[in-house]
Amino acid sequence: MIHTLITSPNSDRQSSVPFCYSLLIAVLLAAGFMPVLTSASGPLPNAAESNAVGKMNHEGAQALISGKKSLEKGDYEKSIALLTAAYEKLPLLGDYALLWRSRAYEGNGNPDNALKDLMTIKEKYIESPLVKKARLKEIDLLRKKNDPSVGRLLEDAVKDNPWNMEIKYAYAQYLKENNDWKKAKELFREVFISTCPLSANASNELSPSDITVGDLVKKGKTLNARWRFEEAEKVFREALTREDNYRSKDEIEDGLAYSLFGQKRYREAAALYKKTNNSLGRARSILRAGDNNAFQAELPEFSKTADKRVAEVMIAYGAMKRREGNSDEAIKIFNSVLSHCPSAKEDALWATGWTYYLSRDYKTASKLFSQLAETYGDPKYLYWGRKCRELLGEGGPLRPSADQENVHDFYAYLTCLKNNEKPPAISSAYLKTSFNSPVAARVDTLAEIGLKSEAAAELLFLSRKNPAPGDLISISLYLEKLGNYKAAMRLISNIPYSEELHELYYPQAFWPEVREASEATSLDPYLILSVIREESRYEPEARSIAGAIGLMQLMPQTALQCNKNIKVHLKNSPELYDARTNILLGSYYFKQLLNKLGSIPLALASYNGGEDAVKDWLKKGKYRTVDEFIEDIPYDETRNYVKKVLTTYFEYLRSNRHGDVSLAHAHIGEL
Question: Is residue 632 part of a domain?
Fold first, then answer.
């Protein structure tokens, strides 16, 4: 079972969640061969019984694996024989044997036997995550047989899975074939509005008159939300050509403008937003287009709004004026925001204080930062307030305040670096947890025989049943052991952080690949892990809106360029989903940036925002310390990214075994 995990910051990493803790006993428990054991007492089988049952389960496991492989090869007769043996000898995983045997029966031209197996899963393994697959396969087989019960089964499946467009499409097809065209059209329209692969098929089932302008607007918004802006543009433009009396043409044009904005066609978006009187959209589009004259012309109009989102765009414009050397104009804009938009007071005060700080008016800046710290308590204000006082000669070395001593955020770590101190170590030495769910034996067995994706699916299925916090921790630990770091992190994020959970929040994911990349590039492996965590949350299949791929979110052209030097033998973009390939190329690229720019923050900013942009910011900003550069990065996304990666890096360094903090000191830069 998944029983007890004990880890220590001073121990080796691989001391967690054994795949099989008394596997034989676990199998016996779940298979019903013996009563449930407790830690204190309980009858145990004698040696002969244990050996006999253990042999039976071993043979069953081997038959299950071999039967699955034969199924995949299309050798259905052999698969049926092997899976029959697996069902008899390993009842713990009987639902897997039945599901795969049903597919073998289907492939062998025996749908009736396939249906019997699927029915057995539904009746005997009620709590199995395979029940849903069994139901869908049953429907598919019954449809092919023109069975009259299909309609009821499809209707029930749609009710139980309202977001599953594949089931809705199948039900719509069935209704169409049985002349219930009115209900079929409703379902086809739902599938059309979605962004699933069957959307185009559903569209072909409908005539233009079946699709309303409202349907087109819903679809366009859905596509925008999925970052599929070019498709969304086509849909909104089609909606504009229709003569239906839709309630709001502005809504269509707003959606079209958003799709144009997403394609970086900012001037076109700005023109449309002007037609719809969308001040926020227009302000954002003009600013992104770099049309300073247009923004300045409309500044009086923007200044009248009490919309905090518009005020935030005005503050960004003021910051741009300040970077151009016009600090007085910037202060006027910030004061205008303070006058007209009380909800943006904090942001406007910060922008004002930061402008005074960069102008070296530390006294005025200090007053504003103190006001902000007293009102809002953000560590950022405390940090820069203390730095003002230090620069004014009003205090000693930069130290965290009493309120901040136990808060390990970005600014606390900057303070540690400035004082040449190691971040506070993890104080809790051990994490203990146990997981006694009956599912544990199935998960252990699946993992033990190499079916790791099935084991992870069992755990994720269990996680959706509102488990107790202790079980949720155990599920996360086991998912991490299976290599499913993304799911482990997603689940553990539902539990408030504590030091006992530190290694679940900051795992040594893909450690062999990371170590190899570290040795090849001389980068700290924990810095590589930090980039992976914030780029993809350890998801090898990650892909960004811009087309960046994999764990370290590499653009294909960048990867191909790096490949010429590191010789990973990259042939095409899909290979970037491979963990080793991605980590090696990403680490090499980051090392190149670090060599060119000389500090980790500058390299991180380049990795996210582009090398040319960073060089331009450095040239215009004339920053005296690296923390000033970080705080003044013009792109919100890049600024937050740099802070997150550095914070994650220091969180990795908090465990005693995690290397020498002097590596961080050497490459962060002057503070």
Answer: yes
